[in-house]
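Section 5: illustrative case.
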């Protein structure tokens, strides 16, 4: 299968401190790739390099076929991104948010109109489509934000802690949306601190102190470390 993300000894230093230390990995088209690590492990810094908003100190990487050093703007046009700190505008309605971001992504008015109706139908938002996003429950906001990140049919969607703070039912619904997008060929690169969610990923990498200490399928990682859950794998690695 085609690799849509490739990193080779990717490194980011801030003065004498190395936040990301020579990480190497690849992600295949349509894969759900979990990028795990404790706070301060370097996963957010690594993601910022991959989405084109932070230049690496050394190493090499391509995202959607574009070089992170020289083609950052092309990367941004070919990916979707959902930040941990909820990306939509609270003072705009659901429809206005979709229209705004559709314009940012360069969609035509006709395409925006069509995609708006599809999104509203799929998420059953007809009754709230003209309400301000700020009035909606967090779970709805997160699902809308993910759908908006897919508006322009990106090759890859980067999700930074997408289910933080939502209830278990909404988390399950959100992962059903992730599976659907992956089944349609979109690659999902997701960070999460919920270890049960790591079980839903095709493959998982675990960062400790700026380095990738483990990378494999959840099943193989549990077998390798002779434990029953991904939480136990994470704890073993974190303890060294």
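Designed sequence:
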């Amino acid at each position: 299968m085609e690799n849509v993300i490739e990193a080779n000894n990717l490194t980011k230093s801030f003065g004498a401190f190395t936040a990301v230390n020579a990480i190497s990995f690849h992600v295949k088209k349509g894969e759900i790739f979990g990028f795990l690590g404790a706070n301060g492990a370097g996963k957010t810094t690594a993601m910022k390099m991959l989405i084109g908003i932070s230049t690496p100190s050394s190493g090499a990487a391509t995202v959607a076929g574009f070089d992170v050093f020289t083609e950052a703007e092309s990367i941004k046009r070919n990916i979707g991104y959902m930040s941990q700190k909820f990306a939509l505008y609270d003072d705009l309605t659901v429809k206005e948010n979709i229209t705004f971001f559709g314009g940012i992504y360069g969609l035509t008015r006709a395409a925006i109109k069509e995609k708006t109706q599809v999104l509203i139908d799929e998420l059953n938002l007809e009754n709230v489509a003209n309400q301000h996003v700020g009035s909606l429950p967090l779970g709805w906001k997160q699902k809308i934000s993910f759908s908006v990140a897919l508006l322009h049919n990106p090759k890859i969607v980067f999700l930074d802690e997408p289910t933080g703070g939502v209830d278990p039912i909404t988390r399950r619904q959100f992962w059903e949306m992730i599976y659907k997008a992956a089944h349609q060929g979109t690659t999902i690169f997701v960070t999460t601190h919920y270890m049960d969610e790591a079980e839903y990923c095709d493959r998982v990498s675990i960062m400790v102190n700026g380095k990738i200490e483990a990378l494999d399928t959840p099943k193989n990682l549990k077998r390798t470390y002779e434990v029953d859950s991904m939480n136990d794998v994470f704890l073993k690695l974190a303890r060294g």
